[in-house]
Structure formats: C-alpha cells, structure tokens
C-alpha cells in the first residue's frame, strides 16, 4: 500500500506529546530511583546528591506531565479529530465549557488528572517536608511512574497486541481501519463523537477533579507510613501526617458525596446511593482512612495501636488502587452502571496493586514486632480501647462490602481454575448491603458517642464513673424518646430500624451535649463531636428517606399480588392535560417545550386534603435530553422540589415511541393509513364516531411541529373534530411548510379522537401561489391617497420606520420602511405592511400577503422629489380552495409520559449530616496544618 | 495484648459466621430457563431473540413489556417485564433478567442490559454534506 500524505493533520502535537509522555515516565522512574538511593544512605539526606537528582527529576516529571495535558487539551480545544481521544470525546457542537469534562471523561484523561494531583501534592511535600522527603517522595514518584505507564502506549517487541498503556495522542487512523482513511482529506469528512449528553452538566466538571484529588491524596498517608516503617521511627511521621490524613478523608468524602448528590439531583438513578460496585469501591478506602485517623489519634495520645495505624493507611491506598482495578479493568462487566470500557490494562493494574502491597506491607511485616503495643493493656474504661474497637468495626464493615463487591473478581478467578464454574451474583444487592451495614452503623454511632465521654488512659475513672453512667443513661432516655417521636413521622417497619433510629438519636443527643456542656461551645476542640453529630443526623436521614420513600406515582390496579407492592407502584402514565389523582396528589402533565436539546415537561402536583381542597401546588420540570444529532432521546433528567422536611422527586421513565426517536416517529407515521378526501372550507365529513370540519386557511400555521423548523413559506388549515356522542370539540391545524424546493407535511393531531389529518402534497399548488401566476399592476400614491381595485379599496395611511415583517431580518446600515396600507373589502378590514429596504445600495422589496383577500402587495419605489410611492398590487385567482385532506383514524396517542414520582422524607438530614462530617474533617485538617506551621 | 487477641478472635469468628450466612442466603447463581424451577426467584442471562416480536403498548399498559430471550443453553422463552421498555433495548448484546418462571413465561421485574460500547466497532461518523 502506498503511503498517503494526509491533509490537515497536526502531527507535531502528537510527536511533542509522545516525547512528553516518555520524558515524564522516565523522569518519574529516575526520581523514584534517586530518592530510593537517597534514603538508604545513613547521612542526613536533605542535601545529598541523590536527593537533588530525585527532586529535579520530579520537577521535570511534573513539567512534562503538565505539558502533555496542555497538548491534549489544546488538541481537544481545537477539535483535532485526527487524534482518537479528541475524536471520541469532543464534537463541533460541544459547548466550550464542557471541554474540561470531555478531557477527563475517558480513561487516559482521568489518569492524567490523577497524576496531576499526585504531582502537585509531591511538589508541596518537597517544599515543606525536610527529613522525610526522600522516602515519602520515593513512594509518590514510583506511583507516578507506574501510572504514567498506563498512558505510555508502547508496543512490546514480543507481540503485535502486547501494548503497555494507551497514549492519549494516538492517531485515529492508527487505531481504526476504516476505509475512510484511504482518503487523504479524511479530516474534512469526519466529525467527533462528542461528550455523552448525560455528562454535559456542571457535575461532570466538579465531581471528577474532587474525587481524583481524594484518590491522589490517600498516597500521602501511605507514603508517610512507609517512611516510618522503613526508618523504624514511629513518632515523627505521625505528627506530620495527621493533617494530610484529615485532608484526604475530607476531600475523598466530598468527592463521593458529590457523586451521590449528582446521581440524586441530575441523573435518573432515583436515589443517592445504590451500592453500585463503583460507589462501594471508593467508599471502602474512605472508611478505612477514617478508621486509620481514629487509631492514629489513639497512637498519638497513648502510643498504642501503632501497628493498626500503619495497616489502615497502607490498606487505604491499596484499596484505592483496587477500586481503580475494578472500574477500569472491565471485570465488573454488566454489574455496574459506570465502569469504564476495557482498555487492556488488567495486568498493568494488577501489577500496580501488587507493587504497592509489597512496598507497603513488606516493611509492615518486617516491623511487625516493633510496632506492637509495649505498655500495659488498655483499660476497659479508656477512650482508646473503644476507639480501637470502633475502628475494628469499621474495618469489618469494609471487609463485608469488599467481599460482596468483589464477587465478579472471585467468579473470574474461579472460572480460571474451573471453566465450568457457575458465577455467583448477589440476589438483591441493596437489601444485602443494607442488612449488614445497618449493624456497622449502629455500633459506630454507639461507640463514637460513648467514647467521647471517656478519657485517654481512663484518667480519673473512679471519680468520673458515676457521672459517666448517669450521662449515658440520660442520652439513652433522650434517644428513646426521640425514637418514639420518630415513629409518628416515619414508619419503622422492623425492629432493626428502631435500633438504628435509636443509635442515630443517641449520637445526636450525646454529641450536642458534648459540644455545649463539655466544650462550652468551643468548636475548635470539637471537630470530632461535629463529625459524629453529622454521622448521627445522616443515619436518621438515611432511615427516613430510604425506608420511607413513597411513590406518588402509583398504579394500584395492575399486577397486584404478582410482585412486591412497592415495585409496582413506581410508575404512572400521564396524558397531557388530563389530571390524575394519586396518593393524595392531583398530578397533571400540562405541556412540554423544547429548549435547545432538552424537552422540558411541565408537570404540576396539587396536594389535596380530604375535602379535595388544594393545600399545596408545585410545578416540576423533569426533562428529556436529545442525543447530539437530535435523532432520539438519549436520557431523562429528573427534577426535584426541595422542602425542609422532604423532597419530591420526579423523573420521566418513558415517552411514546414516536417521541422517543425520529426513526420510530417515521415508522409510526408510515404505518398510518390515510384516506384522501376533497374538502373546501366549511365542508363536514363523518369519520367513524366523529365529524370532521375543514376551517380557514392561513399562512401562519399554528402547529407544534411546524414551529420547530424554519420555512420560506407556510400554509395551515384549521380542522375541527366533533364527537358525535359527547359533543366534545377538538381543534388543530394541519400545516405545509415550504423550504426551497422541499415541501414538509405537518399533520394535525387529535389525540383524544385518535385522528390525524394532513394536507396532501398535491394540494400545495393551491396553497402556495407562485408569483408568475399573478398579474401585478403598478400604482403610485401619495400619503392619504386611495385606490380602488374591483371591490377592494386601499388607502396609504402612513409609514413605519422600524418595520417588523416575518420575512425581514433587519441588519445594521439597512434603510428600511414599511408602508401602512389600509385594505377594505366587504366586511374585511386589514392593514398590509409591505417593506422597502435599501441594503448595500441595492433596493429590495418584501411582499405583504393577505390570505383573506388574496392580495399580494409589493412596495417598489420611493420618489423623494414628488413625494410619491409606488406599489405593485396583484390579486390571486379567486377560486374557492379545494384541498386534498388525508385522514387517518385509530392513531396511537403520542401525548403521554410515563412518570416516576417519589417523596423522600428527611433527605435533608442525610445531606446536612454528611456535609457536616466533611466540613468537620476539613476544618480539623486546616487547623492541624496551622498548628504544624505555628 | 492477650485481651486484644481475644477480641480479635471473637470478631473473626462472628465475622466469619456472618459472612458465611450472608453469602449462602443472599447469593445466587445465574440460572437458565431450563433450571429455573417454578416460583423461585432467579437471574437468567441470555440474548434477545430479534426475530420474535416484542410487544409494548405504552398507551394501555405502560409497565408491561414482553420479548423473547434465548438463554445460555439456547432455550428460548417469552419474558414479560413489569417495567416500561428500557431505552436502547434493541441494541442490547446481553440481557440479565431477574424474576420467576410462571408456566412457560418468565415474569421479570428487573433487567440489566449490556450494550455495545460506544468506543468499539463503530463506524466513523461522517459529516452530513450540506448542499
């Protein structure tokens, strides 16, 4: 095959990008190696040569990584479709503000984002960390080197398909064998695929960077732990690491929370947490990190539990890598909603995990003895003992989640050894996770509350004992009372839920007392109390919104007894304009409008009391989003009304096939059998149960479909349909639109009667009179003059210097004027406004047409000297229009939606509680950083 | 230390027990139509029989959709899904339905579809020529 010299490619971007990738990869490895050499030397290594090499290589790595990102972004920004990553994620119609989202939509982009955060954290640590720089940076640089290999895109010498990583600046024609690449000018022929419409919102702009900063920051505790183990110094790093651990927990938690908020408010998931494998995979490291922070505090204050601190920090980062493996290796397959597509990285990801398990847990085992507890055992009445137990409970919860989430991995391993192995799968994932995590939550809430009132090393326990027991009894009483009151608000259907509600209230009561009584409102000491308070609120919120969510959209008459009640009651069918009474609400689907690529539905919910008085009315606007090429609806987005005590959530789950996709609409239209009838205005025809009457003809049709498009000219015919039995009357207009030489039909649709009426194309010449068939005559008038043509009298009454004519769009420098002509014939009285325009020194006239009189008037000349104005007036042949109308009956409805509407009571407690936790973690981190600097 | 070891052991045993219980009761294997005994809830994996009719009349019964599916043994059964027809259903490569066998019909209330990735084997979209 001959080499083709392609036109219009920007190959320098890819070449420079490839160079940056190689440089960043090599520099990261060099940095890791140099730091490794540096901390193995006994002397103070801050100034030795290895450290300097490590440091500058890390800077070089960071710089080349940034350069690569800039190049990829540049290629995306300029729509260089010759690059496969650009082609896959950007399209010409993608708004600029979503380019960033498109950047990290794919695997390669999100790897770069992750590395970017690592690099930034690394630079901060180089600048601030002195003594532990070498071991800490060794870990980060090694991680960067390994992550870089994911986007290396180098083929191995031993096989054509053995590839390491995937280069984000791979040319499209290198990965795709389409015949289009035989065309040297293929670039002018292709267009990008663009960003998935589901991801075109601000969540996609903020959620990934936050989550990846959370991911990236978990490496800092890992790296510090590594340095402590390696140097066999277990005090210093803990002081330095605590603010970082808190920071990481706050950011990772916020990232997860953003994801669940996104799922709830903008996606049609119908909830904030679904125990999806991807959600679990990022939650578990967060839990282990939280457990790590707790044993960290224990160790810092008492010297106990040091080994556990190491364990939790090491395992958190390894679990982050495991979550990356789960989401990016394709192993989750069909069990998760948001796994990435396979990129052939499984073995690389497994290697990454193994590498960090060895780097982390190798030294952990090596120092196993040294890190054990040395002093006397913790007292049962000490704070550290119960904090430790709490961390173990968290660990236990994580193990349970991890095992269940890993079923697909276990299946894969089992199938490897035994191909006949039948894969196991969770019967009902949500129920499974809830059942066990409920108890974890109960224990954590109880332990976090009780231990706050205990002291480290059980100081003064004998004196404090009585007060402690009295206090706990008091909180339990308060919690019991609150739980009892809660049952009036939400239904606690099983005893386990009562226990959970009790635990939640117990935490809330205890922490509030702690904040106000023990700390006297001094919040600086009370971050832990605030976080625990948040946890208590969160539990009650979860209980209320999860257990007592109620479907307003219910359809109780169908399939009763076949399935669990709640499954059936989710969806309801709403016909436009026909209110439906359901669960105390009168739900009405009023209308829908198309705004950009979104069809927005207007749905009202009116709450009625027993005597059917409307007590509350809200409007909700869920929408349907069309695909980038408008050919079908790609996604439905919900809308939620937020009250303080509850949310009303609505989402469309289905629309008629003819609305769903253009292809279905065409099929539906093709399947209709139209019978043609010749009709004049005023004629009536009997069709089944209905009488159809043809009304007036206009040139400004009122038809939903017609108004969506632009036309050169249009004609509409009004039809009235009357039900013979009920006398109900429906009206709609059928339209024809002319654009260039193309004629478009827009039938009138009578949903209630199941009728559709269209104007047959052969009638178009009756509706659109071509100019050459009209005889024009010229008249010259002065202001006030009149002229009589047949039985029509025309008076020139004045002028309008700001003409508004449907076919005139004004431009700057136009000189335009409309003549105001009063037309009278029999009972008809109208104002015609033909326009005279001088644009770029060329005079033009824009015709006015009056369908009622059939008059066409052009404003052709102005004579300033004589103050006269010339008009050409033509009369359409005055025959009564007989049109060919096609009528189809038994047409399926297309004016309904299938809706899901849910009430989430107390959901704000969940958000408030979880946000409180993140805020407390964040402030605690900031405070510790300040403390360290001071 | 010894007490912590005891606590650890207790947790381990309790944990092991819970995990064992949870796994035996909450976990199921993918069944086939042939193996799915009447009345018990199972998951079946299969592919859509594109030659058989799909039936969805949202105007009358908006949450009833039926189609034919071939399971991994090649056995074909009618599936009645008690949900609105999922989006892009025709494009699915693989279907997982959860439900029960009733007579010769599989009554499903949950469905998962695996659709071809938008990154693979797709024709390169060509600009529409204006003219």
How much of the sequence of chain B is in beta strands?
A: 35-45%
Structural class by secondary-structure content of chain B:
alpha+beta
CATH top level of the largest domain in chain B? Mainly Beta
Count of β-strands of chain A: 33
List keywords for this structure.
heterodimer, A: alpha+beta, six-stranded antiparallel β-sheet, 33 strands, elongated, B: 131 residues, alpha+beta, OB fold (Dihydrolipoamide Acetyltransferase, E2P), 1 helix
Secondary structure elements and their pairing?
The complex is a heterodimer of chains A (934) and B (131).
Chain A lengths: L10 H30 L8 H29 L6 H6 L9 H5 L3 H22 L4 H17 L4 E2 L7 E2 L7 H4 L26 H16 L1 H13 L4 H30 L11 H26 L3 H23 L17 H21 L16 H23 L1 H11 L6 E3 L2 H24 L8 H29 L5 H24 L8 H21 L2 E2 L13 H4 L2 E5 L4 E3 L2 E11 L2 E11 L5 E7 L2 E4 L6 E5 L1 E4 L3 E9 L2 H4 L1 H9 L4 E6 L3 E4 L2 E9 L5 H5 L4 E11 L5 E11 L2 E5 L1 E3 L4 E5 L4 H4 L7 E7 L4 E4 L2 E9 L14 E11 L2 E5 L2 E5 L2 E5 L1 E3 L4 E9 L4 E8 L6 E7 L7 E10 L1 H27 L1
Antiparallel strand pairs in A: 1-2, 4-33, 5-33, 6-7, 7-8, 8-9, 8-10, 10-11, 12-13, 13-33, 14-32, 15-16, 16-17, 17-18, 18-19, 20-21, 21-32, 22-31, 23-24, 24-25, 25-26, 25-27, 27-28, 29-30, 30-31
Helix pairs in contact in A: 1-2, 1-6, 2-5, 2-6, 5-6, 5-8, 6-9, 8-10, 9-10, 9-12, 9-13, 10-11, 10-25, 11-12, 11-14, 12-13, 14-16, 16-18, 16-19, 17-18, 18-19, 19-25
Chain B lengths: L1 H25 E5 L9 E8 L6 E2 L8 E7 L4 E6 L12 E9 L2 E10 L17
Parallel strand pairs in B: 1-2, 5-7
Antiparallel strand pairs in B: 2-4, 2-6, 3-4, 4-5, 6-7
